[in-house]
Amino acid sequence: xxxxxxxxxxxxxxxxxxxxxxxxxxxxxxxxxxxxxxxxxxxxxxxxxxxxxxxxxxxxxxxxxxxxxxxxxxxxxxxxxxxxxxxxxxxxxxxxxxxxxxxxxxxxxxxxxxxxxxxxxxxxxxxxxxxxxxxxxxxxxxxxx
Length: 145
Hints:
By secondary structure, the protein is an all-alpha fold. 33% of the residues lie in helices and 0% in strands. The chain has a domain of 54 residues: Orthogonal Bundle (434 Repressor (Amino-terminal Domain)).
């Protein structure tokens, strides 16, 4: 008998039905698959969570064949060509005045002064040597995050 399967939710009752029709318990089928009964119970409870390879292994043990058939409605539709008919998205336009990546707006316009040397960060963070000096009254206190 043929059973058309259109959703993954239909697999659970079909697997149970084929197993019971073969006169097998979950433990017996699990033994033939080389797994525990609990492992097979999980597979049968949620077949959408297993790989297609494992599902096919179960179906082979149950002597169930998978047949893919084209429906009449889809057979009447023309085949999709390899080239997509959807136009490709044009490249994003650059907003005028937006600096290039890694370049300041002043440097891009040529109005920046000479480049300043940036000291390299030390490879290891410095150890905390004790309490920090209190900020002067004129500077604002920074929040600790």
